[in-house]
Amino acid sequence: MVKRTKLEVIKDILEVLSKGRNVKITHLIYKSNLSNNSIKPHLNELLSNGLMTIYEEDNKKHFRITQKGQEFLKEYNKMKIFSDSYGLS
Amino acid sequence: MMALALSIGQYYGFDSLVEFFILIISLLISYNSYKIYKVIKEKNYSLFSLAFLSISVAFVFKIVSNITLLNVIKIEKGSLILSAIHELNELQAINFFSFLLYKIFLIVGFLTLFLIINKTLNKESMMLYLYFNIITVIFSIYYNFIFHLTIAIILFSLTIHFYKNYSAQKNKHKLLVFLAFLIMFLSHLFFTMIERNPIFYITGEMFILVGFGLLLLNQRDTKNGKENKTRSYKRYTRSVK
What we know:
The complex is a heterodimer.
Chain A lengths: L5 H14 L3 E2 H8 L3 H13 L3 E6 L2 E6 L1 H19 L4
Antiparallel strand pairs in A: 1-3, 2-3
Helix pairs in contact in A: 1-4
Chain B lengths: L11 H29 L2 H35 L6 H34 L5 H20 L1 H25 L3 H20 L7 H26 L4 H12 L1
Helix pairs in contact in B: 1-2, 1-7, 2-3, 3-4, 3-5, 4-5, 5-6, 6-7
């Protein structure tokens, strides 16, 4: 199995978020194939970069993709080609 | 005063045009890498962006150096009058420092690329490379040959890396980058011989133009988001196995 790059992991998380309206952390962990510990730094980065938002409903955290996150998904292919072509990932 | 510009008289307009073209491509690559860095905050991308920014700054100074040398030659040809001597010295000073800065920024740019690609970003290695960098720049003030040979050696190791990157998973984009660096390596080999024959200068300029042209071609495909589907599928099936 080929190890995913950080770029690919971020894309996978955002793809899960783009498919659901309000995504819970357990669903996100399961669908993006990450552990509870390994997903946290990625989520913090996505939040600080404004690619997703977090809000609470019934005392539970939910995640939602932002417009910037949607734009990232559109740009992803270009970024991947760039990164691969120079062997940066 | 040492006016050490590489430019050979009859090619002035052409080489400045080539360098402007390279400057734009380097800026474009630097910007693309910075865009990725902004999202995933990986050091690799910020340094890669800085490396190409450094290369583009180098070519700004190369253009300045070419222009000042052009002026020096013009003044010399116009049978100097005494009042022009002062101007000549100033232009020579600009020419000297801009050419020196060109060398510094180009070495820093390619050396940074080398460090990223070889993943040697620890402080000890960087200090060692910095030392060699300074030594190279000092020697290259007097001998252009040393400067071009150093750049050629760095480019050669980059070419090997990009060849390995291409052979690990063959696709058009990786091939373009590999060929671009191979051609850039050859261009600097030609530059090492410019003192023997001016034809090597123009050949080197042509090669470097083609090299950066290939990087532009890769950028164009990146912009369109074109991916080699067949190869991607092959990679997928390999990973499943």
